[in-house]
Amino acid sequence: MGNCWVAEVKTDSPSHVVFASGRNSKHGSKKGTVLSASSRRVSASSVPLTPGSEGEILSSSKPKSFTFSELRTATRNFRPDSLLGEGGFGAVFKGWIDEHTFAAAKPGTGLIIAVKKLNPESFQGHREWMTEVNYLTQLSHPNLVKLIGYCLEDEQRLLVYEFMPRGSLENHLFRRSPYYRPLSWSLRMKIALGAGRGLAFLHSDKAKVIYRDFKTSNVLLDSNYNAKLSDFGLAKDGPSGSKSHVSTRVMGTYGYAAPEYLSTGHLTAKSDVYSFGVVLVELLTGQRAIDKNRPSEEHNLVEWAKPYLASKRRVIRIMDSRLQGQYSVAGAQRTAGLALQCLSMQAKRRPSMDQVVIALEQLQDATDMERTPKTELKSSGHRGSDRAHNMPRRKISVDVGDGKVARPRPAASHLNA
User: Fold this and answer.
1) What letter would DSSP give residue 290?
2) Which of 218, 321, 353, 373 is 20 to 30 A from 32, comparing alpha carbons?
3) Is the pLDDT of residue 346 over 80?
4) Helices (H), 152-300
5) Is 106 known as a binding-site position?
6) What positions does the entry give for ATP binding (predicted)?
7) 222 is catalytic
8) Which of 81, 213, 386, 402 is labelled catalytic?
9) Where in the chain are all domains bearing CATH 3.30.200.20?
10) Are 219 and 195 in contact (CB under 8 A)?
11) Are 235 and 135 within 8 A, CB to CB?
12) pLDDT in tens, 293-317
Protein backbone atom coordinates (compact mmCIF):
# COMPACT_ATOMS: atom_id res chain seq x y z
CA MET A 1 0.00 0.00 0.00
CA GLY A 2 3.02 2.22 -0.04
CA ASN A 3 4.15 4.84 2.40
CA CYS A 4 1.10 5.83 4.39
CA TRP A 5 -0.17 8.86 6.31
CA VAL A 6 2.91 10.96 5.70
CA ALA A 7 3.95 13.22 2.84
CA GLU A 8 5.44 11.17 0.02
CA VAL A 9 8.00 12.11 -2.57
CA LYS A 10 6.94 11.32 -6.10
CA THR A 11 9.91 9.99 -7.97
CA ASP A 12 10.84 7.99 -11.01
CA SER A 13 13.54 6.18 -9.07
CA PRO A 14 13.39 2.43 -9.75
CA SER A 15 13.68 1.81 -6.03
CA HIS A 16 9.94 2.42 -5.94
CA VAL A 17 9.18 -0.04 -8.74
CA VAL A 18 7.43 -3.04 -7.30
CA PHE A 19 7.39 -6.34 -9.05
CA ALA A 20 5.37 -9.52 -9.26
CA SER A 21 7.19 -12.52 -10.70
CA GLY A 22 9.74 -10.19 -12.24
CA ARG A 23 7.27 -7.79 -13.82
CA ASN A 24 5.55 -4.62 -12.72
CA SER A 25 1.95 -4.85 -11.67
CA LYS A 26 -0.35 -4.25 -14.60
CA HIS A 27 -2.38 -1.95 -12.40
CA GLY A 28 0.57 0.38 -11.90
CA SER A 29 0.36 0.00 -8.15
CA LYS A 30 3.34 0.20 -5.84
CA LYS A 31 2.94 -3.53 -5.19
CA GLY A 32 2.05 -6.61 -7.13
CA THR A 33 -1.14 -8.54 -6.70
CA VAL A 34 -1.37 -10.54 -3.51
CA LEU A 35 -1.49 -14.17 -4.55
CA SER A 36 -3.14 -15.88 -1.62
CA ALA A 37 -6.51 -15.05 -0.14
CA SER A 38 -6.36 -17.88 2.37
CA SER A 39 -6.88 -17.29 6.05
CA ARG A 40 -3.96 -16.58 8.39
CA ARG A 41 -3.35 -17.52 12.02
CA VAL A 42 -1.78 -15.59 14.88
CA SER A 43 -2.01 -16.96 18.41
CA ALA A 44 -4.50 -19.58 17.28
CA SER A 45 -7.04 -17.05 15.98
CA SER A 46 -8.07 -17.13 12.35
CA VAL A 47 -9.27 -14.24 10.24
CA PRO A 48 -10.18 -14.66 6.55
CA LEU A 49 -8.44 -12.39 4.05
CA THR A 50 -11.16 -12.64 1.45
CA PRO A 51 -13.68 -9.81 1.07
CA GLY A 52 -16.33 -10.15 3.70
CA SER A 53 -18.32 -8.60 6.46
CA GLU A 54 -17.16 -6.45 9.35
CA GLY A 55 -17.40 -9.44 11.65
CA GLU A 56 -14.86 -11.34 9.56
CA ILE A 57 -12.34 -8.51 9.97
CA LEU A 58 -12.43 -8.15 13.71
CA SER A 59 -10.28 -10.36 15.90
CA SER A 60 -9.15 -10.43 19.51
CA SER A 61 -8.18 -6.74 19.58
CA LYS A 62 -11.02 -4.72 18.15
CA PRO A 63 -10.25 -1.41 16.45
CA LYS A 64 -12.85 1.31 16.19
CA SER A 65 -15.41 0.89 13.41
CA PHE A 66 -15.88 4.31 11.79
CA THR A 67 -18.61 5.31 9.40
CA PHE A 68 -17.61 6.94 6.15
CA SER A 69 -19.47 10.08 7.22
CA GLU A 70 -17.40 10.30 10.42
CA LEU A 71 -14.11 10.09 8.56
CA ARG A 72 -15.28 12.51 5.90
CA THR A 73 -16.01 15.03 8.67
CA ALA A 74 -12.73 14.30 10.48
CA THR A 75 -10.73 15.00 7.29
CA ARG A 76 -12.80 18.04 6.27
CA ASN A 77 -14.36 16.11 3.40
CA PHE A 78 -10.96 14.83 2.27
CA ARG A 79 -9.94 18.32 1.25
CA PRO A 80 -6.75 18.71 -0.81
CA ASP A 81 -5.06 20.65 1.98
CA SER A 82 -5.56 17.62 4.25
CA LEU A 83 -3.73 15.34 1.81
CA LEU A 84 -0.60 13.73 3.27
CA GLY A 85 0.40 11.48 0.41
CA GLU A 86 -0.70 9.28 -2.47
CA GLY A 87 0.20 5.79 -3.63
CA GLY A 88 -1.09 2.84 -5.62
CA PHE A 89 -3.63 2.16 -2.87
CA GLY A 90 -5.17 5.63 -3.05
CA ALA A 91 -4.57 8.65 -0.82
CA VAL A 92 -3.84 9.44 2.83
CA PHE A 93 -5.43 12.38 4.63
CA LYS A 94 -4.85 14.13 7.93
CA GLY A 95 -7.79 14.25 10.31
CA TRP A 96 -8.84 15.02 13.86
CA ILE A 97 -10.95 13.03 16.30
CA ASP A 98 -11.85 13.33 19.99
CA GLU A 99 -9.28 11.28 21.89
CA HIS A 100 -11.94 9.78 24.17
CA THR A 101 -15.03 9.31 22.03
CA PHE A 102 -13.27 9.10 18.64
CA ALA A 103 -15.93 11.41 17.23
CA ALA A 104 -14.83 13.84 14.55
CA ALA A 105 -13.23 16.97 16.03
CA LYS A 106 -12.40 20.43 14.78
CA PRO A 107 -9.03 20.82 13.03
CA GLY A 108 -6.29 21.53 15.53
CA THR A 109 -8.15 19.89 18.43
CA GLY A 110 -8.23 16.39 19.84
CA LEU A 111 -6.18 13.52 18.41
CA ILE A 112 -4.50 13.79 15.02
CA ILE A 113 -5.05 10.76 12.82
CA ALA A 114 -4.01 9.60 9.37
CA VAL A 115 -6.76 8.18 7.17
CA LYS A 116 -5.80 5.87 4.32
CA LYS A 117 -8.55 5.90 1.69
CA LEU A 118 -8.45 2.99 -0.71
CA ASN A 119 -9.12 3.51 -4.39
CA PRO A 120 -12.42 1.59 -4.76
CA GLU A 121 -11.40 0.36 -8.23
CA SER A 122 -8.34 -1.48 -6.92
CA PHE A 123 -9.07 -5.12 -6.05
CA GLN A 124 -5.38 -5.60 -5.34
CA GLY A 125 -5.61 -2.75 -2.86
CA HIS A 126 -8.55 -4.43 -1.16
CA ARG A 127 -6.53 -7.59 -0.58
CA GLU A 128 -3.67 -5.60 0.92
CA TRP A 129 -6.17 -3.58 2.96
CA MET A 130 -7.60 -6.77 4.44
CA THR A 131 -4.14 -8.15 5.16
CA GLU A 132 -3.10 -4.99 6.98
CA VAL A 133 -6.24 -4.92 9.12
CA ASN A 134 -5.79 -8.56 10.04
CA TYR A 135 -2.20 -8.17 11.17
CA LEU A 136 -2.49 -4.85 12.98
CA THR A 137 -5.57 -5.93 14.94
CA GLN A 138 -3.62 -8.89 16.33
CA LEU A 139 -0.09 -7.56 16.74
CA SER A 140 1.01 -4.78 19.08
CA HIS A 141 4.53 -3.49 19.68
CA PRO A 142 6.13 -0.08 20.33
CA ASN A 143 7.89 -0.31 16.95
CA LEU A 144 4.79 -1.14 14.92
CA VAL A 145 2.38 1.58 13.90
CA LYS A 146 -0.94 1.54 15.74
CA LEU A 147 -4.19 0.92 13.89
CA ILE A 148 -6.94 3.01 15.51
CA GLY A 149 -9.80 1.90 13.34
CA TYR A 150 -11.23 1.22 9.92
CA CYS A 151 -14.24 1.85 7.72
CA LEU A 152 -15.91 -0.85 5.65
CA GLU A 153 -19.03 0.67 4.14
CA ASP A 154 -20.40 -0.22 0.70
CA GLU A 155 -17.43 0.26 -1.64
CA GLN A 156 -15.47 2.37 0.82
CA ARG A 157 -12.35 0.90 2.45
CA LEU A 158 -10.45 3.15 4.87
CA LEU A 159 -7.88 2.63 7.61
CA VAL A 160 -7.24 5.00 10.51
CA TYR A 161 -3.77 5.17 12.07
CA GLU A 162 -1.91 7.11 14.68
CA PHE A 163 -0.32 10.15 13.08
CA MET A 164 3.47 10.02 12.75
CA PRO A 165 4.54 13.68 12.77
CA ARG A 166 8.06 13.26 11.40
CA GLY A 167 7.02 11.24 8.39
CA SER A 168 9.07 8.54 6.75
CA LEU A 169 12.75 7.68 6.97
CA GLU A 170 12.79 7.89 3.18
CA ASN A 171 11.95 11.58 3.22
CA HIS A 172 14.55 12.39 5.84
CA LEU A 173 17.30 10.54 3.99
CA PHE A 174 16.57 11.49 0.40
CA ARG A 175 14.34 14.53 0.20
CA ARG A 176 16.16 17.83 -0.19
CA SER A 177 13.97 20.31 1.63
CA PRO A 178 14.39 22.84 4.46
CA TYR A 179 11.75 20.85 6.32
CA TYR A 180 13.92 17.72 6.34
CA ARG A 181 17.25 18.40 8.00
CA PRO A 182 19.97 15.76 7.51
CA LEU A 183 19.72 13.03 10.12
CA SER A 184 22.61 12.92 12.58
CA TRP A 185 24.62 9.74 13.06
CA SER A 186 23.07 9.09 16.47
CA LEU A 187 19.55 9.49 15.09
CA ARG A 188 20.31 7.12 12.22
CA MET A 189 21.51 4.49 14.66
CA LYS A 190 18.48 5.08 16.91
CA ILE A 191 16.14 4.61 13.94
CA ALA A 192 17.98 1.49 12.79
CA LEU A 193 17.68 -0.01 16.27
CA GLY A 194 13.96 0.78 16.56
CA ALA A 195 13.18 -0.63 13.13
CA GLY A 196 15.28 -3.68 13.92
CA ARG A 197 13.34 -4.29 17.11
CA GLY A 198 10.10 -4.12 15.14
CA LEU A 199 11.33 -6.75 12.68
CA ALA A 200 12.68 -8.91 15.50
CA PHE A 201 9.25 -8.88 17.13
CA LEU A 202 7.57 -9.91 13.87
CA HIS A 203 10.00 -12.82 13.55
CA SER A 204 9.49 -13.90 17.16
CA ASP A 205 7.53 -16.99 18.18
CA LYS A 206 4.72 -14.71 19.33
CA ALA A 207 4.09 -13.32 15.86
CA LYS A 208 5.89 -15.52 13.28
CA VAL A 209 5.40 -12.97 10.53
CA ILE A 210 7.62 -12.21 7.53
CA TYR A 211 7.28 -8.52 6.72
CA ARG A 212 8.39 -8.84 3.06
CA ASP A 213 8.52 -5.12 2.28
CA PHE A 214 11.06 -3.55 4.62
CA LYS A 215 12.31 -0.26 3.13
CA THR A 216 12.83 3.36 4.15
CA SER A 217 9.36 4.50 3.05
CA ASN A 218 7.76 1.97 5.41
CA VAL A 219 9.72 3.16 8.45
CA LEU A 220 7.79 6.03 10.05
CA LEU A 221 9.02 8.36 12.78
CA ASP A 222 7.20 9.87 15.73
CA SER A 223 8.06 13.26 17.24
CA ASN A 224 11.05 11.75 19.08
CA TYR A 225 12.34 9.89 16.02
CA ASN A 226 11.18 6.54 17.35
CA ALA A 227 10.82 4.19 14.40
CA LYS A 228 7.63 2.26 13.68
CA LEU A 229 7.00 -0.18 10.86
CA SER A 230 4.00 0.54 8.67
CA ASP A 231 2.25 -1.02 5.70
CA PHE A 232 1.60 -4.71 6.26
CA GLY A 233 -0.13 -5.31 2.95
CA LEU A 234 2.51 -7.81 1.78
CA ALA A 235 3.19 -9.50 5.12
CA LYS A 236 3.02 -13.30 5.29
CA ASP A 237 2.79 -15.89 8.02
CA GLY A 238 6.16 -17.51 8.55
CA PRO A 239 6.79 -21.23 7.99
CA SER A 240 5.31 -23.63 10.51
CA GLY A 241 6.12 -27.12 11.64
CA SER A 242 9.07 -28.69 9.83
CA LYS A 243 8.92 -26.25 6.93
CA SER A 244 11.88 -23.94 6.45
CA HIS A 245 10.26 -21.40 4.14
CA VAL A 246 7.06 -20.15 2.56
CA SER A 247 6.76 -20.52 -1.19
CA THR A 248 5.00 -17.52 -2.64
CA ARG A 249 4.79 -15.34 -5.68
CA VAL A 250 7.70 -12.91 -5.70
CA MET A 251 6.55 -9.46 -4.60
CA GLY A 252 8.18 -6.50 -2.93
CA THR A 253 10.26 -3.49 -3.90
CA TYR A 254 13.13 -3.76 -6.36
CA GLY A 255 16.49 -3.17 -4.73
CA TYR A 256 15.43 -4.47 -1.31
CA ALA A 257 14.44 -8.09 -2.01
CA ALA A 258 16.80 -10.93 -1.10
CA PRO A 259 18.45 -12.73 -4.05
CA GLU A 260 17.23 -16.21 -3.10
CA TYR A 261 13.67 -14.93 -2.86
CA LEU A 262 13.92 -13.38 -6.31
CA SER A 263 15.27 -16.57 -7.84
CA THR A 264 13.13 -19.19 -6.11
CA GLY A 265 10.16 -17.50 -4.45
CA HIS A 266 11.21 -19.11 -1.16
CA LEU A 267 10.47 -16.60 1.59
CA THR A 268 12.04 -16.77 5.06
CA ALA A 269 12.73 -14.39 7.93
CA LYS A 270 16.26 -14.06 6.52
CA SER A 271 14.68 -12.35 3.49
CA ASP A 272 13.74 -9.48 5.81
CA VAL A 273 17.27 -9.46 7.22
CA TYR A 274 18.65 -8.84 3.74
CA SER A 275 16.26 -5.92 3.27
CA PHE A 276 17.38 -4.54 6.62
CA GLY A 277 20.96 -4.69 5.38
CA VAL A 278 20.01 -2.63 2.34
CA VAL A 279 18.48 0.05 4.57
CA LEU A 280 21.60 0.06 6.75
CA VAL A 281 23.65 0.86 3.65
CA GLU A 282 21.22 3.65 2.80
CA LEU A 283 21.66 5.04 6.30
CA LEU A 284 25.44 4.93 5.92
CA THR A 285 25.62 6.47 2.47
CA GLY A 286 22.52 8.68 2.26
CA GLN A 287 21.81 7.16 -1.17
CA ARG A 288 18.85 5.22 -2.51
CA ALA A 289 19.00 1.46 -3.04
CA ILE A 290 18.37 1.96 -6.75
CA ASP A 291 19.02 5.22 -8.56
CA LYS A 292 19.45 5.42 -12.34
CA ASN A 293 20.60 9.03 -11.99
CA ARG A 294 23.92 7.83 -10.58
CA PRO A 295 26.75 6.57 -12.84
CA SER A 296 25.94 3.17 -14.36
CA GLU A 297 28.24 1.24 -12.02
CA GLU A 298 26.46 2.84 -9.04
CA HIS A 299 22.84 2.23 -10.10
CA ASN A 300 22.52 -0.62 -7.61
CA LEU A 301 23.74 0.72 -4.28
CA VAL A 302 24.45 -2.66 -2.66
CA GLU A 303 26.46 -4.03 -5.57
CA TRP A 304 28.53 -0.84 -5.75
CA ALA A 305 29.01 -0.45 -2.00
CA LYS A 306 29.92 -4.03 -1.03
CA PRO A 307 33.68 -3.70 -1.76
CA TYR A 308 33.79 -0.55 0.36
CA LEU A 309 31.79 -2.13 3.18
CA ALA A 310 34.29 -4.98 3.31
CA SER A 311 37.29 -2.66 3.66
CA LYS A 312 38.02 -0.79 6.88
CA ARG A 313 40.15 1.66 4.96
CA ARG A 314 37.68 2.36 2.18
CA VAL A 315 34.30 2.38 3.95
CA ILE A 316 34.70 6.03 4.97
CA ARG A 317 34.76 7.00 1.29
CA ILE A 318 31.08 6.11 0.85
CA MET A 319 29.76 7.70 4.05
CA ASP A 320 27.07 10.36 3.66
CA SER A 321 28.92 13.69 3.42
CA ARG A 322 26.04 15.40 5.23
CA LEU A 323 27.06 13.62 8.42
CA GLN A 324 30.02 16.01 8.60
CA GLY A 325 32.11 13.89 10.93
CA GLN A 326 29.41 13.18 13.51
CA TYR A 327 30.46 9.53 13.70
CA SER A 328 33.60 7.71 14.75
CA VAL A 329 35.56 5.77 12.16
CA ALA A 330 35.21 2.63 14.28
CA GLY A 331 31.45 3.13 14.47
CA ALA A 332 31.15 3.42 10.70
CA GLN A 333 33.36 0.37 10.17
CA ARG A 334 31.40 -1.83 12.51
CA THR A 335 28.02 -0.71 11.19
CA ALA A 336 29.28 -1.45 7.68
CA GLY A 337 30.40 -4.89 8.84
CA LEU A 338 26.95 -5.61 10.25
CA ALA A 339 25.31 -4.48 7.02
CA LEU A 340 27.63 -6.74 5.03
CA GLN A 341 26.61 -9.77 7.09
CA CYS A 342 22.93 -8.98 6.59
CA LEU A 343 23.61 -8.81 2.83
CA SER A 344 25.23 -12.24 2.60
CA MET A 345 24.23 -14.04 -0.59
CA GLN A 346 23.66 -17.16 1.51
CA ALA A 347 20.59 -16.72 3.71
CA LYS A 348 21.85 -19.10 6.38
CA ARG A 349 24.94 -16.93 6.91
CA ARG A 350 22.88 -13.86 7.72
CA PRO A 351 22.28 -13.06 11.39
CA SER A 352 18.82 -13.28 12.86
CA MET A 353 17.09 -10.00 13.67
CA ASP A 354 17.57 -10.72 17.37
CA GLN A 355 21.32 -10.87 16.74
CA VAL A 356 21.16 -7.69 14.67
CA VAL A 357 19.39 -5.88 17.52
CA ILE A 358 22.04 -7.01 20.01
CA ALA A 359 24.78 -5.77 17.69
CA LEU A 360 23.07 -2.39 17.25
CA GLU A 361 22.57 -2.05 21.00
CA GLN A 362 26.26 -2.69 21.55
CA LEU A 363 27.12 -0.15 18.88
CA GLN A 364 25.13 2.48 20.73
CA ASP A 365 26.63 1.54 24.09
CA ALA A 366 30.27 1.52 22.98
CA THR A 367 32.47 4.46 24.00
CA ASP A 368 34.07 4.80 20.57
CA MET A 369 30.74 5.43 18.85
CA GLU A 370 30.79 9.04 19.94
CA ARG A 371 31.51 11.90 17.57
CA THR A 372 34.95 11.90 15.97
CA PRO A 373 36.96 15.07 16.69
CA LYS A 374 37.22 17.31 13.63
CA THR A 375 41.01 17.29 13.97
CA GLU A 376 41.03 13.55 13.36
CA LEU A 377 38.93 13.87 10.20
CA LYS A 378 41.01 16.80 8.99
CA SER A 379 44.25 14.89 9.34
CA SER A 380 42.90 11.81 7.62
CA GLY A 381 42.51 13.18 4.13
CA HIS A 382 39.45 13.10 1.90
CA ARG A 383 36.51 11.44 3.71
CA GLY A 384 37.87 9.48 6.65
CA SER A 385 40.82 7.92 8.38
CA ASP A 386 42.48 4.54 8.79
CA ARG A 387 43.92 5.66 12.07
CA ALA A 388 41.04 4.84 14.38
CA HIS A 389 40.83 1.14 13.54
CA ASN A 390 44.58 0.70 14.06
CA MET A 391 44.51 2.03 17.61
CA PRO A 392 44.81 -0.66 20.32
CA ARG A 393 41.48 -1.46 21.98
CA ARG A 394 40.16 -4.14 24.27
CA LYS A 395 37.64 -6.20 22.35
CA ILE A 396 35.07 -8.86 22.90
CA SER A 397 33.51 -11.10 20.26
CA VAL A 398 29.78 -11.25 19.72
CA ASP A 399 28.28 -13.93 17.51
CA VAL A 400 26.42 -12.51 14.55
CA GLY A 401 25.15 -15.15 12.18
CA ASP A 402 27.74 -17.82 11.47
CA GLY A 403 30.70 -15.51 12.00
CA LYS A 404 32.08 -13.38 14.80
CA VAL A 405 32.34 -9.64 14.86
CA ALA A 406 34.91 -7.95 17.07
CA ARG A 407 33.28 -5.40 19.31
CA PRO A 408 34.65 -3.03 21.97
CA ARG A 409 33.64 -3.76 25.53
CA PRO A 410 30.40 -1.79 26.24
CA ALA A 411 30.59 1.28 28.44
CA ALA A 412 27.99 3.16 30.45
CA SER A 413 27.65 6.15 28.12
CA HIS A 414 25.01 6.25 25.37
CA LEU A 415 24.69 8.17 22.16
CA ASN A 416 22.44 11.18 22.33
CA ALA A 417 19.44 11.00 20.05
Assistant:
1) B
2) 353
3) yes
4) 169-174, 185-203, 259-264, 269-285
5) no
6) 117
7) no
8) 213
9) 14-162
10) yes
11) yes
12) 999 999 999 999 999 999 999 999 9
